[in-house]
Amino acid sequence: MLLLSGDSAIRRALDPKIALLAILLAGSIAGCDREKRDQEQAGPSQANIASGEARDARSAETFQHLIDRSHAGEAAPAARFFGPDNAPVTLAAFKGRPLLVNLWATWCAPCIAEMPTLDALASQQRKAMTVIAVAQDLQGAAVVDPWFQQAGLTSLQPYIDPDNALLDAASSALPTSIFYDADGKELWRVIGAIDWQGAKAKALLAEADL
């Protein structure tokens, strides 16, 4: 299956329903794929590249994405990832309050573009919901921790998923943000980058009374 971003075809196997939405938005959705991730993480200067992209992406004014509700009602996956303390964790640990899970990577420009707005959301909504950003970098903390140290974020913490367990469970592309209600049931997901301080994001959150 192909997702198109600008003039480049981005390959990743997606759920058929997502694929149909992607075709409708061909040429406008911003996504990142496993093939590109493998290539860009091969070099030893990954951390430096990522920090440079972070500075550049902060000035991005356009966020391209699609909203997918086809998984509404599905339970959060039991996939294991790692918290800021390097202890294994699953999404079940966050059950009891609404949860927004952002799947991203340090090498993914659309991911970096939305990160400051996601950090602001985490700060604004900290009493009403939990927001976590789970990096899908294969090198894990070795590249994610340095990125966080340079990014200047105030609320988000460095969760990592070097096995890509959450991304594989979502059968999606990067970035993908999935909203779960307090019972751990999916409400909607955003595929691509969105301005979490913008009107579209606020409308989505309003669906959950946030």
TrEMBL record:
Region of interest called Disordered, as start-end residue ranges on this chain: 35-55
SUPFAM superfamilies named among the record's database cross-references: Thioredoxin-like
Keywords: Isomerase
Keyword Membrane: no
Domain of life from the UniProt record: Bacteria
Gene Ontology MF: a single term: isomerase activity
Gene3D superfamilies the record matches: Glutaredoxin
Protein name: Thiol-disulfide isomerase or thioredoxin
Gene source species: Sphingopyxis flava
